[in-house]
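subagent[fold] <- orchestrator: predict structure for attached chain, return tokens only, no commentary.
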Amino acid sequence: MNLRFSFLLVPLLALGFLAGCASDDSSESEGSGSAQTASIDDCQKGDITTFKDGVLTVGTDSPAYPPYFEDNDPSNGKGFESAVAYAVADRLGFSRSEVEWAVVPFNSSYAPGPKKFDFDVNQISITPAREKAVSFSIPYYTANQAVLVTKDSGIGEISGLDELQDLKIGVQVGTTSLDAVEEEIDPTTAPRVYDNSNDVVSALKQGQVDAVVVDLPTAIYLRDVEVPNSSVAGQFEAPGGDQWGALLAKDSDLTKCVNAALESMKDDGTLEEITTRWMSDAASAPELN
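subagent[fold] -> orchestrator:
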């Protein structure tokens, strides 16, 4: 993600979006995971080697938070990443009963060494530093930017980016969110830029700004947990959006098959349907153009 929210460290240290990257070429991947893709016909259960024979083992952290997982139960198929994992499993020929979930702390997922899972889904950003120790699939999600407002600000649902131009917008320095505000919104007054995420959120709570721009997953969390009486007024695509990939052991032979499954899901619209249901709809925010 764009912001490293220090005030979330206690409840959410394990969450992938805390380990996201600012707009910094040294840490943010411009790539999109491994480019190797096999034929999905050659990637069926009987043709691939998995951590356990006849079982696809998927890792994620615990607790598992919405909207990525629901009811802290990755195995129920509810939530964005649970649904993605089961869809990948299905493309590879594994039934629901042949998928097992393993608890994998976020920071250990991309540590060097062997893995006790086939792939891990945990809002893990694809970055060059991590790719030195593990392999990633092609991205299954690229984060939109989002506009967070307080309900007493008088700002309702927004239908277009031009409606944001006259607002006082708060954003954190050095982030892709700041780039998005300057390039996509182009406000009439310069955005108010803060040194850290605590100050961004405090400015919104205290009415120093009309709105803040963060990535969509962070906005959902802030709305639901950290900023009472707030709403996500809109979301929009912007260059440099954080990309998440399924994480695998370094040079895993399974990477090309996970890629094949994801490509298949992109081609027939399955991935878009999952993303819309669990991410876009979860935000309850319109797409802004």
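orchestrator: received. Logging for downstream: Residues 270-283 form the longest helix (14 residues). The first strand starts at residue 56 and ends at 60.
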